[in-house]
Amino acid sequence: MRPPRPTGGLLLLGLLLAPARASAQDYAPRWDRLERLAAAVEADSIPKQQIEGEARRAVIWAAQRTVRGREARTVARLAIAAGAPFAPPDSLMPLGERFWRAGATRALRSALAADSGDVEAALMLERLFPYPAPWIEPERELAHLRALAARHVALPPELVVAWVGMELERGHPDTAARALDRLGPGDLPDAQRWHLSAQVEFALDDPRATASYYRGAAEIIDPAGAAPYRRDVAWIADSTELASWDSMRTAGGDAAAWLRRFWQRRDLADLRPPGSRLAEHFARYRTALRDYRWDLEASLAIGIPSVPGAGEEFNKSDADIRFPVSGEFKGSPLSMDNRYRPLSGILDDRGLAVMRHGTPTDVADMPGMTGMYQTLWRYDTPAGPLMLSFSRPGGPGSADPKFGMVARNRPFGDLATACVVDPSLCVLAGVVVAGGRTTAPAERARLGYTQMREIAERTDDHARRFETRLESYAQAYGIPGEGVLLVVAARAEQLPAGRLRSEAVVADSDDGRFAFHGDTTWQGSTSAGPDGYVGAWQLLPVPPGRWQVGVVLSDSAGRRGNGTTVRGVPVADPDRPGLQLGDLILGREESGIAWRRFGEQVPLNPTGAWRREEAAVLTLEVVGAVSGDSYGVAIAVRRLDDPADRTRLRIEESLTAERDRFLVQRRVALQQLEPGDYLVEVTITPADGGAAVVRARALPVRDGVVSPES
To answer: What is the pTM of this model?
Structure first.
């Protein structure tokens, strides 16, 4: 009996798996065979291990010459088939992947260099490195994309998306808009297309941008549509916010509502007009991609690794990146002080700082002691200066900072240059020059920079920045049925011509809903009081509720300024039944600024502090009283740092209501109080045994000054 004959499929498999006869020295590719090999692995007909030897010879052969067209694409297919699955471009590239990725990339870039219209080669590159991870230096990638667009009426959507993004980050929004027009119907899901449109419109200052952004969010139906919106959030969200997004059902319009609340909360926290933080986000993204990409590893397909043995990532429990610890990456004392990769695989740590805090107030660039590039950034914030130190990690490649820099836990570089940005380092520099012991001051600097780096990486802001700080103050009081009484003051000598500009926002801090935004410039109606401050008040019309009030005060030129936030300002609803109280207003007759309520003069105190020899004037509005009924009034003053919580002053009396709304106003002498921080608490109790209502406010008492900061 004759054995069965092998089938055609088995014959083909045998041909595919037959070893190549050529040696490495005289290797000559057989392109039809190599294409069949790549197709077989792509179709899972044979395991990829079966082609590794053939693929390696082809990659080495292609690396020694210029390849193009079919040859280049076949080499790339073989390399991808042998090396897949590849790690995402924004992650640490495994050692074994670099040969295959670099081989495929070189062949495809060679094909494009030889033929600027090779769409297939460009598409393979884009799929290897999806935008915003470029597959060659951004300037050259943009040139390739423009050449492709000039030679082809239609382009694959992946290339159009990359083209639009590259035009935006290189500062060409008009060209980006024309590139966007090259997308055909159905090329992208609606959510992604509207998100891309919003990016272009924001760059063009098109007022439709915000509407496009939220329209796209409302069109999310799957993770692919949600991806660009999640990336927007992930740059600045805290862990709770990101977990909330990830657990949300993004389809059905929920994502749009979630995003509105997310960005509105940022507007409020940053004392900005509604919608401005979202526009700022895209402006920062364009800047960060243009100037601060992390190009040390995969994003330019260069494949430069972090240096083996240079140290492991400091794996703190809340770190976003866990650095691999193996025999290749040896630990060292520096491991606990520095990181060797950025938190983001797309942007370096400078780019992350830009995404969270915008461009720095001041920068010192300098070569490091080891020849590696260093830079020191300062952000001037309402909480004080935020100092960040960055350096180029050691390793093969260039000291050029364009390849990426990472944040350090200590200042690096020339201390004499660095202390121009951070004056505290001048002391350390002086100790070094004098040859003194640097251990203690260096350790203080390290601890300070560690803390500031951690703050920078978990917070974000859009705070307006000024050249110098304006000594200014603001108080906010809820007025029943009227809104918020905003009281402001600034040092008169810092205001040219006495002009004071105030920009105020009032919103619900829980959901970010804005109730008021506006700005006012006072001139002529303000005057410097006896303490040298220009003061003014403004009634902001907002409905009943509990509000957060933010205000930015500046001079008319916008050079000096300062911002502050007052939280939990209650505006009572006079139509609600029951006894209620307005906010407790504490004033100074000496401040020179007053408001009128129900025909009564209400002294105000915008600085929020009192001298011991003065009296605090308490004004409290009672709402919902019963005319003719009696009410007990108790005023208690306690020192905040007193562990026994003793009452230092107490005033008690009874009064009869003549109407349902009236003012309670009392002068409280402060001579018997030592300088310190106190709390004033006013309690109104109905004589018929009804529930008491309470209002309280801080009372800083100072010796000879009127600033609560002293």
So the answer is: 0.79
